[in-house]
Amino acid sequence: MNFLDLGEVCEFVDQTVADFQQQRLKALKELDFMGWLTRNLYLCKPRYMITAGSIVCGSLEVYLSSIEDKFFDDLMKRVAVFIVNKAAGGYKSDKTGIDLEFYNDENHYLVSIESGLNLRSASNRETLEGDFNKAIAMLEQSDYLGEVQPVLGICFGHSEMPSVWGYQKVVGQGFWYLISENKDLYGQIIEPIQHQALDYDKAMANEKDRKTNDFTKVLLNNFYTSEYGIDWLKLIELKNDPKEAEFVTI
Question: How far is CA 61 from the centre of its chain?
Fold first, then answer.
């Protein structure tokens, strides 16, 4: 492994987190009423959300959580590829289901990355095993060196299970040490990313408030009933057939 300049890593992380913040703000700004309506509306009714404001606010939270999960996964993969490139000459993999590859101690590592310690379903485990097997077969047909080691890398968390389902699993500090051999990397740089990335800045909070007010106004103008409730049937019909949408947006 090569020497890893933590200052250079910090600079890259700061820029990548800034990109993450801009991506989620852009996604929220571009969300219109129909886009909001088609996302997770069914979650509101079982929670007994009756007021227009609570319906909008609840479903916006679900929407923001889903996009943040995706963007955050992408962020951590970018950071991991940057680090493994600097430390071991590793690179972003072009193989299906594999995020990065690197060579160290006579092992060729195939790494699939997840940001959190989530319980994989049996079907997802089978898919990952299949992706690893295909990638290994591709390497065996080339002039690769060393033994192939498939790895599931989890960016954050702790686990006592070193290997599962035929591949190695490394979690939290163990994963970042594997790709850098730097014992200070996780505590000094990686672990704080969770809080830094998911902090709500003023622009994000203001945009969320604006969307909540705008969508609540549209909801009341078009789906408010004489019984002081929300016309769920009309909402669901519009969700299922948005091409025929005609409603007041101001």
Answer: 15
- 29-34-39-41 Cα dihedral, nearest 10 degrees: 120
Separation between Cα atoms, residue 123 and residue 208, nearest integer Å: 36
The DSSP H or E segment spanning 170 is: strand 167-171
pLDDT digit string, tens, across residues 164-181: 557 888 999 999 999 999
- Contact partners, residue 227, CB within 8 Å, separation at least 6: none
Please tell me the total number of residues recorded for the chain in this structure: 250
Q: How many CA atoms lie within 13 A of 162 on its CB side?
A: 2
Q: Look-up: residue for tokens 């979650």?
A: 43
- What tokens appear for 109 in the block? 């590592």
By the 8 A CB rule, do 26 and 4 touch? no
DSSP SS3 for 40: coil
| Greater pLDDT, 166 or 78 | 78
Domains in the chain: boundaries: 6-244
Residue 190's pLDDT band (cuts 50, 70, 90): very high
